[in-house]
Each structure stands twice: as C-alpha cells, then as structure tokens.
Amino acid sequence: MPKYIINGGKKLIGEIQIQGAKNAVLPLLAAALLTDEAVTIRNCPNLVDVNNMIRIISALGARVVRTGDIIQITSDGLFAHEIPKHQAKELRSSVFLLGSVLGRMKKAKVAYPGGCDIGLRPIDLHLKALLELNVRIVEKYGYINCDASNMIPTALTLDYPSVGATENVMLLAAISNGVTALANAAREPEIVDLQNFLNSMGAKISGAGTSYIRIEGVKHLKGADYTAMPDRIVAGTYLIATAICGGCVDLVNVEPGHLQSLLSKLMKSGCDIDIKANKISITSNGNIQAFGIVETQPYPGYPTDLQAQLTALATVANGTTIISENIFENRYKFVPELNKMGAQVMVKGKFAFVTGVSKLTGAETYAMDLRGGAALVLAGLNAEQTTVVHDIHHIERGYEELDVVLKKLGCDIIRL
Ligand code: UD1
C-alpha cells in the first residue's frame, strides 16, 4: 500500500496550476450520455473516481477515449440501462447516472449506493424529486428500478439543497416535454458548470447558481466541446498548505469567486492574499490567528470538503477555533490521527473544539477518507520530525500528484 513520508518545516514557494474539478467532471461525464453525438470534455483530472466513471459509462455502451486531460465520449451505440452493484459501490457519484440514463433510455436500474466513509449519504431526496416528475420507481433486492416514459415536467422543491439531487433533476429534465422549475436547488459552482455544459449541448437551462433553476426541456441534445471548471477544493487545500507552512505561492487556473468563504478566513487569520482574474497569490509567515467559529454550509457558505484541512490549520493557530460540521455526520475520523501528532482537538457531536499548539510532532497516521487524509498531509508539512501517512489511496481519489506538486514547492515529501 503506498504511503507518504513527510519531513515538515519547509516553506512553500512557487506556482501551482490547479487541476480541473473532479466534482464537476463526474456529472459532465454522466451528461455526455444524453446525446448520440461526440462530446469533448477538457481539463479532466486523472483520478481514480474519474476513471471509474469512465469505466461505468463504457459498460453502458459509450465509447470513451482519453488523451491527457481531454476525454471524448460518443454514445451513439445501443445502451445498457443497468449499473451493477460492484460499480455503484466503487463510485458513489454513479448516482448521477440515474438522471442521465433515465433521460436517454427512459429507464434505469441502479444499485443502491449505500453508506460511505463520511456518513450515510442517503438518496431519498433524489428519489423524491424523480417521483414528483412522475418517474415510476420500484426498489427491489438493493436495486432501484426507474421508468421515466411517462415523466411530467413540473414545479418542485427540494427539502434540502442537495448537490447530487439538483444535478439529477437537471440531467433528467434537460430532454423533456415541458418546463421543470426546481426550487431550493443547490447553488454550488459545479451546478453552474453542468448548466453551461448542457446549454452548450443545446439545453435550455437558466438560474444555476441561484436557488431556483428553470429547465425548459428540448427534444434533442447535440455534441459539444467544453472545458471543465477548476477544482476549488484542491485550490483551497493548497492555500491552506501555504498558510500552515508559511511561504509564498501563486495558484493559477483558479476561480477566486468560488473560494470567497475560505479567502476571507485566511485574510483575517493573518495571510496576505492578492486576487487577479484567474490567479490567487498567498503569502503567509506561518503565524496564524484562530478562526473563532467555523460552520460548514451549502455554497456559498464554508464548504464541508475544506473542513478537515481548516481544522488541521487551526491546530497550530494562536487561540481556539470551534468547528461545526453541519453537512456530513462522520467527518471527524481524522481527528484522533491529528491528536497523535500533538494537536489538541476534542470532538463532541457535530462540533470540534480546537486549541492551537505551537508545533505538531510527526507520527504514523492513517488516512480514513479523502479530505481527512489531505488534512493529515497538511499537518505533516508543519510538524517537526517525520510523519507517515498510510492509506493514501483515499487522498489520491481527489488530488492529482499531490506529492509531486508539494515537492516542486519545496516540501520534503516522498511517495513510497
Ligand atoms: C457533493 C460532493 C461532495 C460534497 C457534497 C456537499 C460530488 C461528487 N460530491 O456530494 O464532495 O461534500 O456535495 O457539498 O459532487 N442527503 C440526504 N438525502 C439525499 C441526498 C443528500 O439526506 O438524497 C444529505 C447528505 O447525506 C448530506 C447532505 O444531504 O448530509 C448534502 O449532500 P449532497 O449535497 O447531496 O452531497 P453529494 O451530492 O452527495
């Protein structure tokens, strides 16, 4: 099993090109199934999750060619409509295929995705939305069988602004006979990216980025050539890495507007931030003030996917930070690993109480999930002596060549 070995205490200096967003590319790959014409998606990161999605859509009948960060999909052949259990388990995001396979084939059979490493992650909101659109759903033997041949576009409201449920409604309603008006939609930038991509294929969708999305169904979608948005969570992780180590880093190919909630916190904590159109420059002397109370919220609030990384930074800040994790119920698994390094974090329910210490000390640690694993790497970059992070396959689900990027910036990190 690969691991990272980190000797902390180095400053970060240099420039990073931010990879394309995994959480945008996954629904875009699902959306590509909605047309029989060729689709090109650029800026796709080379990650296990993306490659799993490619494997699933290929098994459904799509022809997929990957050249570097460009993925070309042609789904003109006959389609299967079933996503088997082992594939659904490998990739929770296969749930997006419910909307796109239903949109294309009018029927879909998807294995129940079940729980995952950060919490239960039910799909009741997805199914409720489909039912409101008059999709017939039969759940049997761990599979969800859906029939959209009598789908009726209508106005519906999500009980909670779920990212995945919003994307599934957009995917299903894009090709339909009427207008679907979705209220309390999620407002994440990845949803705007999906709208822009679908519109480049000829869809008529407006309102993404607000709580109200209007989808005017069209008869047919065509091919497209589209560049996916940059990964705001990866960018945020490198910003926090610079804050925790000290140094001076330029992030290029970023969308600063997507990172407002993090940038304002880093500025208040003593980092110098300079923002240009597609570039963020950060300078930190490593002397960080605590963050007070940080609550994770749906966008534009502070993202749950950057909670663990900010908790790692708070462990070496001056003062106390209280984190409130409001999105997922099981996102503190990394905390005992951080505490092994001398951090002082106490978890009580959805709260983590973090008392800053002057220095962390290296330890043997284990990544339990993607973002929690990234937090351990950040802590290791700060710590005195050597930190080992095991089980880094979790981390590599979301970060392209994390060790290579950090090494270029001056870190002492080896992947073994
Ligand atoms: C997406 C992101 C994930 C991010 C999350 C929240 C992708 C591939 N993943 O996940 O990285 O952490 O948004 O920003 O884009 N919920 C229900 N029932 C449902 C659906 C969701 O109760 O049917 C709950 C979830 O358990 C969770 C909350 O709603 O507590 C948010 O989930 P959701 O917004 O759907 O996240 P995902 O789309 O799964």
Overview of this protein structure:
With 416 residues, the chain is of the alpha/beta class. It has two domains: 22-227, Enolpyruvate transferase domain (UDP-n-acetylglucosamine1-carboxyvinyl-transferase, Chain); 231-415, Alpha-beta prism (UDP-n-acetylglucosamine1-carboxyvinyl-transferase, Chain), CATH 3.65.10. Helix content is 30%, strand content 26%. It contains 13 helices and 24 strands. Strand 8 (136-140) and strand 9 form a beta hairpin. Helix 8 (232-245) runs parallel beside helix 10 (307-314). The longest helix has 14 residues, at 232-245. The relative contact order is 0.15. The mean pLDDT is 94.
In short:
With 416 residues, the chain is of the alpha/beta class. It has helices at 22-31, 48-59, 85-90, 97-105, 124-132, 163-173, 189-200, 232-245, 260-268, 307-314, 335-340, 370-382, 402-408; strands at 4-7, 12-17, 39-42, 63-67, 70-74, 82-83, 107-111, 136-140, 143-147, 155-157, 179-183, 204-206, 213-216, 224-227, 247-252, 272-276, 279-284, 292-295, 320-324, 344-348, 351-355, 364-366, 386-390, 412-415.
